[in-house]
Amino acid sequence: LNSLLEAAGVEPQFEGGIRVTDAKTLGIARKLFLEENARFIERLDSLGVATRAIQGTFRATYLDKEKWQYVGKITEVRTQAIESSIRAGYVPILTSMAEGDDGHLLNVNADVAAAELARALKPLKVVYLSEKGGLFNGEDKKISQINLDEELETISRQPFFKFGTRLKILEIHDLLKDLPRSSSVAIIHPSDLEKELFTDSGAGTLIRLGDRIQKATSISEFKDIEKLKAALVGSSQGLDTEASVDTFINSLEEKKFSAYYDDAMQCIAIVKPGGAKQTMAVLTSLSTTKSGWLSGMMDNIFTAIKQDYPTLAWTVDERDENLAWFFERSDGSFHNDGRVLFYYGTSMRSDALVPVYEDFLKSGQATPSE
Length: 370
Hints:
single chain, alpha/beta, Carbamate kinase, Aminopeptidase, 3 domains, four-stranded mixed sheet
């Protein structure tokens, strides 16, 4: 757009970071958007994708006519044509142009238009395409995911939380608050779109509200013991009967521990700290529902555990369907007789790991310090 404006002798003007859209700029922008949409539709059609061009989705008022001229603030999103296209098997394609109350076309920021459309449709996922392929931290390392309820306060204190990154995260936070809690936002490179939509691994940066993780260090802090018992049945440590759960809970009355869980107790992890002889903390019980995995709650729980325990060991059955997830969150592992010992925060040859490894060989478990 900037190149076309320059060729037409129009000097771009910005007020408060927003492009001033005069009549000539609006005409050039509209022509460009329509041409690019047509090219996009033609390309998709050539690949066998049924598409439908949609117009008139957005209504808007002038954001500030004296300051930005033909720039609009969306007041209404008409979803009927979009939903009709989807039901008929067509991919709807639209621009961020809006219709003003006086009949004039108004220019609207594309990210803002996408967010307003999402608020109207309540989708499971919103995907933003970016040449950078995601958000990056201060070490220029891509951030794979952010669970905002748990991490926003921490992230807001990081050096990289400024300028465009800060604005994008806060805008996404505002959007997700208006969507179902199961919704998420992904920021990916265009080449990763297929991977994001059709595989479990995804790409880029995935942002969710997640669930704020609760923490307890004594049995008396749990408001509902029966819900705790129900959550522990079938945990990673073989608590498969009510009797075994009762025995485990009774043992917690006498020992130090930290329990991490969500309000609904779809996920719960119990960590026992190290001691004089065995200094590593051990994840003694881990239980989660399918929903807990899909919603990213387990990621929240592991983030909370890492903040409290810089080193940790735990065991998982080799047949666990989420084994790859545990490998990704560990610094190393050992395999023996159908069980896998994972650890993070230490090296394979560290003295701290020796007693944990010896117990693992004897019992197939990581045994916490007495």
